[in-house]
Every structure is written in C-alpha cells, then in structure tokens.
Amino acid sequence: MDHEGIRWVKSSYSGGSGTECVEVAVLVGRTAVRDSKVSDGPQVAVRSGAWAGFIHAVRRGELGAG
Prior knowledge:
The chain is α+β, with helices and mostly antiparallel strands and about 70 residues long. The chain is built from one helix and four strands. A four-stranded antiparallel β-sheet has the order 1-2-3-4. A hairpin with a 2-residue loop joins strand 2 (about 20-25) and strand 3 (about 30-35). It is flat and about 35 Å long.
C-alpha cells in the first residue's frame, strides 16, 4: 500500500506513556491503521463500513478487554 501523502492521525485513546499509539488514515473506501511508533512498519486497511462497525462496537462496550 503506497502511503505517500496520506494524513495519519493518532487516536485520542492512545496511552500517554507512548507505548500504546495507534494511528488511522481515512482512504477512499477504506481506513488504514498502524502503530505510530513504527510508521514504516506493517499497516492494515479495512473497508470503511467494517471500521465504522468496529468503532461502534468499541463505544458500546461490546468487545471484551482481553
């Protein structure tokens, strides 16, 4: 995936200690996620609808913490 010119945004839920940093980028029809500490490392991109469903499930507390 070519990430030149993509605007990555750090999650407001990332930990303040710098050990839990997640960044997302909104792309055409999908959302990409990466570890902000390893910006040239692996990324995952999912369809925008799947990402929205994931975020809604997190906000509703439907996902376990471990």
